[in-house]
């Protein structure tokens, strides 16, 4: 059973959705304020966030923007605002969808199921520029052609892709090589590994060197 966190201060909507979700095999968690939502995000596991834009202690847009790293589930904005700028802003922030009140129950359930389905598909593969990492087959492709990585090269590249946008330190990579292979690798050998991965990728702008610290992969 999937769990949905609803951040909404309208009691009528909350009660209606509680019944609707129960009928569709969803477990519902509710928060009337953003402060309460913070506690849920920190301490509870859930599969999707339904987030109202206008709440007593702030707006959902800013809340989501400031906590995107913590919220690793699909987000659907649920709001009475139907202005095009608001809809575009929500989607540009990375939301899975944007639903305007009043909404139809069947439409809401359909959009929730689509968002959950897309999240599952997203987990099966990861994209970086024109490079795809297939998590099921443990293969890497560029423009549809497989890149012949060794298993260690694949795991090192995947480590950086999974942390896209963040710097992965050389020390943490060296620790992971030990975890992956059971072999101790020095700093110079790591440099050789990274060089080899870059050469196989066929482009130098995927793995960026952060001098004196480590490496970073950017999705865009």
Short précis:
The chain has 220 residues and is α/β, with parallel strands linked by helices.
Class of secondary structure makeup: alpha/beta
Q: How many domains make up the coordinates?
A: 2
Count of β-strands:
14
Instruction: Output the CATH topology of the largest domain.
Output: Rossmann fold
> Portion of residues in helices?
40-55%
Content of β-strand: 25-35%
Task: Kindly provide the name of the CATH class of the largest domain.
Answer: Alpha Beta
* Number of contiguous helices: 8
Average residue-wise pLDDT = 88
The radius of gyration over CA amounts to 21 Å
Q: What is the chain-wise order of helices and strands?
A: EHEHEEEHEHEHEEEEHEHHEE
Q: Which CATH-level-2 architecture of the largest domain?
A: 3-Layer(aba) Sandwich
User: Main β-sheet: number of strands, strand sense, barrel status?
Assistant: 5 strands, parallel
Q: pLDDT below 50 for ≥5 consecutive residues: which ranges?
A: none
CATH superfamily of the largest domain: Response regulator
Distance between the termini: 34 Å
Task: Specify the overall morphology.
Answer: elongated
Strand order of the largest sheet: 2-1-3-6-7
